[in-house]
User: Fold these one by one.
Assistant:
Number 1:
Amino acid sequence: MRLAIFVDQVFRREGDTLSTDEPYILFPASFIESVDEIVFIGREARQAGRGPYVLDHPAITLCPLPYYPNLYQLWRLSPRTFLEIRRRISEQARSWDAILIGGPHPIGQMIAKECIALGVPVGLVVRQNLVQQMGAHRGLKRLAAMAAARALDWHFKRLARDRTVFTVGGDLTREYRRFSNRVHEHMPCLMRDAQLRTFAEMCSGSDPTRLICVGRLAPEKGHQVLLEALAHLKQRGVRCHLEVVGTGPLEPELKARSMTLGLSDTVTFHGFVSYGPALFELYRQAGALVLPSFTEGFPQVINESLCIGLPTIATAVGGIPLFLTDEETAMLVPPGDVAALAGAIEQVVRRPELRERLRSNGRKLMVDNTLEANRERMIGVLHAEVFKTA
């Protein structure tokens, strides 16, 4: 079985080595344990190099697309670029038994239509609400982004009609079930069974006031709300230290805001830390993970924190409230609510029995939701609904 997968990532080459910068790739790459060959479809970096996530299996290959910096820059591409993409897909697609398309994404939709015309079975993967994500931007950029997101969302839902769709979170699942009766909830966890067993022997940090927030520094991630909550707690005599892991366009603004709020000595910006030992060590030193996002699918960092036994505080958005239970497996708060976020952090800091309950229940929850467990559920659906039409 030869499975093609479109992901909007940049792939890098160094000799014969294929790699990328985004850890999500580890989940679909693991499908090679259940299929004969995987062909990733994505942008190829212009210069040789190696990212932190190496795809070193001989049966994993790349159908390279022309490079573009990001989704916002697509409009600058020459029409010839889109013709070249169609040519590359049409040349290779006849050898694919099925294809998974991540979206909504204009290139992904174009590839899907080309594959449908060639008779290649198509499945869709929707990991986040694009309209909500674009709504977190500000000014004129927000208006343009929202208009484009609504158009992409509408076209992707039309594409989903009567097809197999994997969605992250209850809201997306309900939306797409209006268009297909083959919609399946999906959680792309990167933690393997062996890692879970290793983490079960670890202890998170002993200092509950040491917090960690991991994610891209972008408007939809809610870092501004977290800084305001920390300032609120400081005024009440609860002094926390925050480790911020990640990079993004808001980094200068967030650093400036932390200084304005008098938090510069209690907030550390680590920049990018790759998935692996360095990140796990930061988790182990922390007393709690805080995720203040305005919109999410189901963030990988929650899987990581639960496996490690790190108490988790998150906003009740996307797939988070469907998977987690307030005060049992995590502390859940409304997005954008500074007072509620500060209150949840204070409870975790002051109540050792709450921290222990969250730590124990979180690990138990992940036993049936490791990479292997979620992959096998997804592969089972593909065999039942997609591969059988090949």
Number 2:
Amino acid sequence: MTEAVEPAAEAATVVPVLAVVGRPNVGKSTLVNRIIGRREAVVEDRPGVTRDRVNYDATWSGRAFTVVDTGGWDPDARGLAERIAAQAQIAATMADAVLFVVDATVGITDTDEAVVKILRRAGKPVVLAANKVDDQRTEAEAAALWNLGLGEPHPVSALHGRGSGDLLDAVLAALPEPPPESEREVGGPRRIALVGKPNVGKSSLLNKLAGEERVVVDHVAGTTVDPVDELVDFGGRTWRFIDTAGIRKRVKEASGQEYYASLRTSTAIDRAEVAVLLIDGSDSVSEQDLRIIQTIRDAGRALVIAFNKWDLVDEERRYYLDREVERDLVQVQWAPRINITARTGWHIDRLVPALDRALEGWETRVSTGALNAFLGRLVAEHPHPVRSGKQPKILFGTQASVAPPTFILFTSGRLDASYERYLERRLREEFGFVGTPIVLQQRPREKRKR
């Protein structure tokens, strides 16, 4: 039985939470970017780009708070839009205060009035933002928003920053005071990035781990756009899972929304300690999967490979999948592999032991004495081939760092790439390093100048 940790409950002990809500395309994500001071929320000039509730850290006047960006809130929505609206409603009930964004150039709509009724029932402090106020004329139109009955409308231009300081002052007044620094937790849960092609089941896995629908899931590929951070209690511990957008075949050919989403996914991998690559077990290992693996290796992150949708894999498919793993995943044979079905939760309990093994390998340190004793035996058994009458030797080795394990080899000359691969393989056989890339850096001895 998995138990979910509500982000609000966790965040309330650390920093207060502000939910940004409003109907679709009123500029919520643009305003969020203005508040946090960086372009992080995906923005595009059409409704429905933000689909999940997405958390960002923000500070104003020396006070920290969490901003939750939500999908457009339409009480009459159906289908996927209905679930997006439900996410916004969850965010409003979770938050310590709500920033309700209205398009001042359009005025009060029936949807706005319906949202106000829901906000009143939630009983949270509400700050009313009259967005798209770019000049004095529009500022006069914003005064009409007094009729919503939520108090003073704060005119702001999310695009140009006009009035954002006064709005943030009002937000701080609505939020509760955070606890003293001494009460805050040090460290934090392990950070896990869920990555893979679009529609392989990343959001389904996160929802199953959390034991509730935290993120919107739809059979249409590309439902997740922003990386979504969720704290989840699973396997007796708390983990920070980062659900990411699917990395597409060619990022440069993607639409604006997809292009920025793919950049966010790369950033999410950099933020994580271990990446869980989901591969559709019923489909062939693709070029995109291999590209994602290379991104994870380049970032130096631990790796677990999860073959999802195992309920769709028959005996014949298993035979061909084994051949594909031998052929295409030979470079990451060290990564733990598990077979799961995220939709039903089958075997997702195997994820925690795989994560533990990968993180243990990622943080393994070998003493200098043990490393050089190993290198001495290895060179004696299998010396470097002679090249052009010369034979490079390993003089000394040391592990410079962990996460990922990084070794510096002092040599009498440059080692061949094939001998480097042999060294890495033997290091894994001797010391483990399960689930982690290994970095080997050579320091050839300089020739003495005559």
